[in-house]
Amino acid sequence: MALHPKYLTDNEEVVLDLHPHWWFLVPRGAALLASMAIAVVVLVELDGNETSHDIARYASWLLLAVALIWFIARAMKWRTTDFVVTTDRCIYRSGIFAKAGIEIPLDRISTVFFNQSVFERMLGQGDIGIESAGENSRQEFSDISNPALVQKTIYQQVEAYEERRQDRLGTVVRGAQQPAELSIPDQITQLDQLRQQGLVSEEEFQAKKSELLDRM
Protein backbone atom coordinates (compact mmCIF):
# COMPACT_ATOMS: atom_id res chain seq x y z
CA MET A 1 0.00 0.00 0.00
CA ALA A 2 1.20 3.52 -0.74
CA LEU A 3 2.70 5.65 2.02
CA HIS A 4 -0.14 7.35 3.88
CA PRO A 5 -0.10 11.19 3.71
CA LYS A 6 -0.17 11.36 7.52
CA TYR A 7 3.45 10.15 7.55
CA LEU A 8 4.59 13.11 5.45
CA THR A 9 5.79 16.39 6.92
CA ASP A 10 4.60 19.81 5.80
CA ASN A 11 5.39 20.51 2.13
CA GLU A 12 6.86 17.01 1.71
CA GLU A 13 5.89 15.16 -1.47
CA VAL A 14 6.30 11.55 -2.58
CA VAL A 15 8.51 11.17 -5.66
CA LEU A 16 8.76 7.35 -5.84
CA ASP A 17 6.74 4.71 -4.00
CA LEU A 18 7.81 1.19 -4.95
CA HIS A 19 6.87 -2.32 -3.89
CA PRO A 20 9.51 -5.03 -4.42
CA HIS A 21 10.03 -6.19 -7.99
CA TRP A 22 7.54 -8.81 -9.24
CA TRP A 23 10.30 -11.44 -9.18
CA PHE A 24 9.89 -11.29 -5.40
CA LEU A 25 6.72 -13.39 -5.89
CA VAL A 26 7.98 -15.83 -8.53
CA PRO A 27 9.62 -18.62 -6.43
CA ARG A 28 6.58 -19.16 -4.23
CA GLY A 29 4.27 -18.65 -7.21
CA ALA A 30 6.12 -21.41 -9.02
CA ALA A 31 5.80 -23.66 -5.96
CA LEU A 32 2.05 -22.99 -5.89
CA LEU A 33 1.69 -23.84 -9.58
CA ALA A 34 3.71 -27.03 -9.10
CA SER A 35 1.55 -28.13 -6.18
CA MET A 36 -1.58 -27.42 -8.23
CA ALA A 37 -0.22 -29.56 -11.06
CA ILE A 38 0.57 -32.39 -8.65
CA ALA A 39 -2.93 -32.21 -7.17
CA VAL A 40 -4.51 -32.36 -10.64
CA VAL A 41 -2.36 -35.33 -11.69
CA VAL A 42 -3.19 -37.20 -8.50
CA LEU A 43 -6.92 -36.57 -8.88
CA VAL A 44 -6.91 -37.65 -12.51
CA GLU A 45 -4.63 -40.65 -12.27
CA LEU A 46 -5.70 -42.06 -8.89
CA ASP A 47 -9.44 -42.44 -9.27
CA GLY A 48 -9.88 -45.62 -7.23
CA ASN A 49 -10.86 -46.03 -3.60
CA GLU A 50 -7.73 -47.80 -2.42
CA THR A 51 -6.27 -46.59 0.83
CA SER A 52 -2.98 -45.70 -0.82
CA HIS A 53 -4.85 -43.58 -3.36
CA ASP A 54 -6.72 -41.76 -0.59
CA ILE A 55 -3.46 -41.03 1.22
CA ALA A 56 -1.94 -39.67 -2.01
CA ARG A 57 -4.97 -37.44 -2.59
CA TYR A 58 -4.92 -36.09 0.97
CA ALA A 59 -1.19 -35.50 0.72
CA SER A 60 -1.59 -33.58 -2.55
CA TRP A 61 -4.37 -31.43 -1.05
CA LEU A 62 -2.24 -30.73 2.00
CA LEU A 63 0.69 -29.79 -0.21
CA LEU A 64 -1.55 -27.46 -2.20
CA ALA A 65 -2.91 -25.83 0.97
CA VAL A 66 0.59 -25.26 2.36
CA ALA A 67 1.81 -23.82 -0.95
CA LEU A 68 -1.21 -21.51 -1.13
CA ILE A 69 -0.68 -20.21 2.41
CA TRP A 70 3.04 -19.80 1.70
CA PHE A 71 2.29 -17.76 -1.43
CA ILE A 72 -0.36 -15.61 0.29
CA ALA A 73 2.10 -14.75 3.06
CA ARG A 74 4.65 -13.72 0.42
CA ALA A 75 2.08 -11.64 -1.45
CA MET A 76 1.07 -9.86 1.75
CA LYS A 77 4.72 -9.09 2.48
CA TRP A 78 5.11 -7.73 -1.06
CA ARG A 79 2.05 -5.56 -0.57
CA THR A 80 3.22 -4.15 2.76
CA THR A 81 6.83 -3.46 1.74
CA ASP A 82 7.56 0.02 0.37
CA PHE A 83 10.69 1.83 -0.74
CA VAL A 84 9.77 5.51 -0.88
CA VAL A 85 11.70 8.55 -2.04
CA THR A 86 10.24 11.91 -1.04
CA THR A 87 11.44 15.47 -1.40
CA ASP A 88 12.97 15.22 2.11
CA ARG A 89 14.04 11.61 2.75
CA CYS A 90 14.23 7.95 1.74
CA ILE A 91 11.84 5.66 3.61
CA TYR A 92 11.76 1.86 3.82
CA ARG A 93 8.87 0.11 5.58
CA SER A 94 7.99 -3.57 5.73
CA GLY A 95 5.94 -6.01 7.79
CA ILE A 96 2.44 -7.44 7.89
CA PHE A 97 1.77 -7.40 11.63
CA ALA A 98 5.13 -6.50 13.16
CA LYS A 99 6.51 -3.45 11.38
CA ALA A 100 10.08 -2.42 10.64
CA GLY A 101 11.43 0.58 8.83
CA ILE A 102 14.18 3.11 8.35
CA GLU A 103 14.26 6.73 7.26
CA ILE A 104 17.31 8.46 5.78
CA PRO A 105 17.18 12.28 5.46
CA LEU A 106 18.39 13.47 2.08
CA ASP A 107 20.87 15.89 3.62
CA ARG A 108 22.69 12.96 5.30
CA ILE A 109 23.10 10.88 2.13
CA SER A 110 26.66 10.79 0.80
CA THR A 111 26.63 7.92 -1.71
CA VAL A 112 24.02 5.85 -3.54
CA PHE A 113 25.08 2.70 -5.39
CA PHE A 114 23.32 -0.24 -7.01
CA ASN A 115 24.21 -3.83 -7.90
CA GLN A 116 22.71 -5.99 -10.65
CA SER A 117 23.67 -9.42 -11.89
CA VAL A 118 23.20 -10.17 -15.58
CA PHE A 119 19.96 -12.00 -14.80
CA GLU A 120 18.70 -9.15 -12.60
CA ARG A 121 19.51 -6.65 -15.33
CA MET A 122 17.40 -8.66 -17.78
CA LEU A 123 14.51 -8.55 -15.29
CA GLY A 124 14.96 -4.87 -14.44
CA GLN A 125 15.67 -5.34 -10.75
CA GLY A 126 18.60 -5.11 -8.37
CA ASP A 127 19.87 -3.91 -5.00
CA ILE A 128 20.25 -0.32 -3.83
CA GLY A 129 22.79 0.77 -1.20
CA ILE A 130 22.77 4.12 0.58
CA GLU A 131 25.64 5.49 2.62
CA SER A 132 24.91 8.31 5.03
CA ALA A 133 26.43 10.11 7.98
CA GLY A 134 26.06 8.67 11.48
CA GLU A 135 25.78 5.17 12.93
CA ASN A 136 24.75 2.28 10.69
CA SER A 137 25.84 4.49 7.84
CA ARG A 138 25.30 1.90 5.11
CA GLN A 139 21.87 0.49 4.36
CA GLU A 140 21.07 -1.99 1.59
CA PHE A 141 17.69 -2.68 0.00
CA SER A 142 17.00 -5.66 -2.26
CA ASP A 143 14.44 -6.44 -4.97
CA ILE A 144 14.28 -2.82 -6.15
CA SER A 145 12.72 -2.19 -9.57
CA ASN A 146 14.94 -0.26 -12.01
CA PRO A 147 17.69 0.56 -9.46
CA ALA A 148 19.58 2.84 -11.86
CA LEU A 149 16.51 5.09 -12.12
CA VAL A 150 16.06 5.01 -8.35
CA GLN A 151 19.70 6.03 -7.87
CA LYS A 152 19.28 8.91 -10.31
CA THR A 153 16.06 10.05 -8.63
CA ILE A 154 17.66 10.06 -5.17
CA TYR A 155 20.58 12.18 -6.41
CA GLN A 156 18.16 14.59 -8.08
CA GLN A 157 16.19 14.99 -4.88
CA VAL A 158 19.37 15.45 -2.82
CA GLU A 159 20.40 18.30 -5.14
CA ALA A 160 16.93 19.85 -5.08
CA TYR A 161 16.84 19.62 -1.28
CA GLU A 162 20.23 21.34 -1.01
CA GLU A 163 19.09 24.11 -3.36
CA ARG A 164 15.99 24.72 -1.24
CA ARG A 165 18.08 24.82 1.93
CA GLN A 166 20.51 27.28 0.39
CA ASP A 167 17.61 29.47 -0.67
CA ARG A 168 16.23 29.45 2.88
CA LEU A 169 19.66 30.20 4.31
CA GLY A 170 20.09 33.02 1.81
CA THR A 171 16.84 34.52 2.97
CA VAL A 172 18.03 34.37 6.57
CA VAL A 173 21.39 35.90 5.67
CA ARG A 174 19.73 38.76 3.78
CA GLY A 175 17.55 39.36 6.80
CA ALA A 176 20.62 39.33 9.04
CA GLN A 177 22.13 42.08 6.89
CA GLN A 178 19.29 44.42 7.91
CA PRO A 179 20.09 45.24 11.56
CA ALA A 180 17.41 47.93 11.66
CA GLU A 181 14.75 45.22 11.54
CA LEU A 182 16.23 42.68 13.96
CA SER A 183 18.86 42.98 16.65
CA ILE A 184 21.80 40.60 16.54
CA PRO A 185 20.47 38.50 19.48
CA ASP A 186 17.13 38.26 17.67
CA GLN A 187 18.87 37.18 14.48
CA ILE A 188 20.76 34.46 16.42
CA THR A 189 17.49 33.32 17.99
CA GLN A 190 15.90 33.13 14.56
CA LEU A 191 18.81 31.10 13.22
CA ASP A 192 18.60 28.76 16.22
CA GLN A 193 14.91 28.15 15.52
CA LEU A 194 15.72 27.25 11.93
CA ARG A 195 18.46 24.91 13.17
CA GLN A 196 16.02 23.15 15.52
CA GLN A 197 13.59 22.74 12.63
CA GLY A 198 16.31 21.12 10.53
CA LEU A 199 16.29 23.93 7.95
CA VAL A 200 19.83 25.05 8.83
CA SER A 201 22.62 22.61 9.67
CA GLU A 202 24.68 22.87 12.86
CA GLU A 203 27.74 23.97 10.87
CA GLU A 204 25.80 26.72 9.08
CA PHE A 205 24.31 27.90 12.37
CA GLN A 206 27.66 28.11 14.15
CA ALA A 207 29.31 29.91 11.21
CA LYS A 208 26.58 32.55 10.98
CA LYS A 209 26.40 32.89 14.76
CA SER A 210 30.14 33.63 14.92
CA GLU A 211 29.77 36.20 12.15
CA LEU A 212 26.96 37.96 13.99
CA LEU A 213 28.79 37.90 17.35
CA ASP A 214 31.84 39.46 15.71
CA ARG A 215 29.67 42.40 14.72
CA MET A 216 28.58 43.12 18.28
Overview of the structural elements:
The protein has 216 residues and is α+β, with helices and mostly antiparallel strands. It folds into 3 domains: 5-20 and 82-158, PH-domain like, CATH 2.30.29.30; 25-78; 161-214. It has helices spanning 26-45, 51-79, 118-123, 147-176, 184-196, 202-214, and strands spanning 14-18, 82-86, 89-94, 100-105, 109-115, 125-132, 138-145. The strands form 2 sheets. It has a 4-stranded antiparallel beta sheet with strand order 1-2-3-4. The chain has a 3-stranded antiparallel beta sheet with strand order 5-6-7. The chain is elongated, with a radius of gyration of 27 Å.
Short description:
The chain has 216 residues and is an alpha+beta fold.
Can you tell me the CATH architecture of the largest domain? Roll
Helical fraction equals 40-55%
Globally, the shape reads elongated
Global mean pLDDT = 85
* Main sheet strand line-up: 1-2-3-4
Low-confidence stretches: none
The CATH topology of the largest domain is what? PH-domain like
Q: Quick one: CATH class of the largest domain?
A: Mainly Beta
Write down the domain tally. 3
Distance between the first and last residues' Cα? 55 Å
CATH superfamily assignment of the largest domain? Pleckstrin-homology domain (PH domain)/Phosphotyrosine-binding domain (PTB)
Topology as a string of helices (H) and strands (E): EHHEEEEHEEHHH
- Total strands: 7
